[in-house]
Every structure is written in C-alpha cells, then in structure tokens.
Amino acid sequence: MKKIVYLVGILLFTVACGDTKEVIISQVEAERASTIFPGTTTEMLLEGQKLYNVHCMKCHQFSPTKFKVHTWEKYMPEMGKLANIDSKTQETILKYVATFSKK
C-alpha cells in the first residue's frame, strides 16, 4: 500500500510540475513576435517573461507553450482581472505567451 501511495505521489508531482520548461528568448523569437505584434523587441519579450513569472506562475505552473494563441487571448482579460493586472501588463504578457504558444 505504501508503494502505491508513493508512486501516485511521484506521478502527481511529475504531472503538476512537468510543463514548466524555461523558454529561451532571442532575436529570432522577437522577429516571429513582430509578425503577430509589429514592433515587438527582444526586450519586450524578456519583460513579458518576467511579468509572466511574477504574476502568472504564482498559481499556474505551466509553460507558454501549453496553449494556442487564441486560448491565451481568450483567458488573458479574465485572468488579468483576477490577478489585478492592468491592461498594459496584460498586453506585455500576451506578447510573450503568444510568441511561444502552440501553433
């Protein structure tokens, strides 16, 4: 019985923390982001990553690659209200997550 409880605990820990891979930001990503959000720079994406880590990772332990762009766009306003994040910060976070989202 103890083995089963131990294995279930390991499995739950792996599933809960398994999608937190760090995203590397370079000029290539900034160029890709500019196709969605014209004028986006590497610095803007780095700021979005920082804000995502501060505001979103408190409750959600997943990578921006977890969802498609339309999902991020759909839930960002709602999550922004819940987390008391202003619209400019939401936009910066959205640029970051949309750049690395599933296609």
Number of strands: 0
Please describe the biggest sheet, giving its number of strands, its sense, and whether it closes into a barrel. Answer: none
- Termini distance? 43 Å
Tell me the helix content. Answer: 55-70%
Name the shape in a single word. Answer: globular
In terms of structural class, how would the helical and strand content be classed?
mainly alpha
Total domains, how many?
Answer: 1
Low-confidence stretches: 5-19
Helical segment tally?
A: 5
Estimate the strand proportion.
under 5%
Radius of gyration: 16 Å
Order of helices and strands: HHHHH
Mean pLDDT: 82
Question: How would you characterize this protein structure?
Answer:
The structure is a single chain. The protein is mainly α. The protein has one domain (22-100). It has five helices and no strands. It has helices at residues 2-17, 27-36, 42-56, 69-82, 87-100. The radius of gyration is 16 Å and the shape is globular.
Give me the secondary-structure topology.
Elements: H1 2-17, H2 27-36, H3 42-56, H4 69-82, H5 87-100
Question: What brief labels describe this structure?
Answer:
single chain, 103 residues, mainly alpha, 5 helices, globular
